[in-house]
Amino acid sequence: MNVLLVEDEPRIADFVRDGLAERGFRVDTCGDGDTGFERALAGGHDVILLDIMLPGRDGLSVLKELRERGVTTPVILLTARNELGDRVEGLNLGADDYVAKPFYVEELAARIQALMRRLSGDRNGRLQVDNLELDRLERVVTCQGHAIELTTREFNLLEYLMRSAGAVRTRTQILEHVWGYDFDPSTNLVDVCIQRIRRKIATIDAAAEGAGSPIESVRGVGYRFRTAP
Fold this sequence. Notes:
Blueprint (H helix, E strand, L loop, with lengths): L1 E5 L3 H13 L3 E5 L2 H10 L4 E5 L7 H10 L6 E6 L3 H10 L3 E5 L3 H19 L2 E4 L2 E4 L4 E4 L2 E3 L3 H12 L5 E2 H9 L9 H14 L12 E4 L3 E4 L4
Parallel strand pairs: 1-2, 1-3, 3-4, 4-5
Antiparallel strand pairs: 6-7, 7-8, 8-9, 10-12, 11-12
């Protein structure tokens, strides 16, 4: 798998490059946003690891222009833990995932592999995260081989979260995507719908009850679909 790493801190770049290379990845590195943008635009990479704080163009500017030019290569943002606003903006601009610094290279490699599996399933009309599978063409959701009966809204909400598994989606983002127009931000529509989905999954998978639910609440922000550790 070919990886483009855009990271200006040599210590982190070396750490990531060497760690991924040990796991069979081929890693192309550069240390500024302008060069990173040109290499990403040229193509040939399966995934882009993009730091947000870069010399020249910052990571979010690089991401924004890549998406505007039709570049669909998956992007994982590398962020500092206190950059919540940047992470949310990055996801809105088309990032597929993010990893907060400091991180273990094992975690990063696992996130890359999970992203590739998810996107591969998406191209086939199927999304699978852990033991939950969603068929976008047949509009069927199964857990451990058992069908889960969902309403149209519940299906669309679950699909939205599974497509970005591991990434946080705000209530406003969910409302706009699933309901299609703006609601009063104080509405509890999202929370009620999430609770119904959780209960339906838990009727099949007892481990999905309570804190074990695959749909995780992120306090003060929204929700995300858990990925396997």
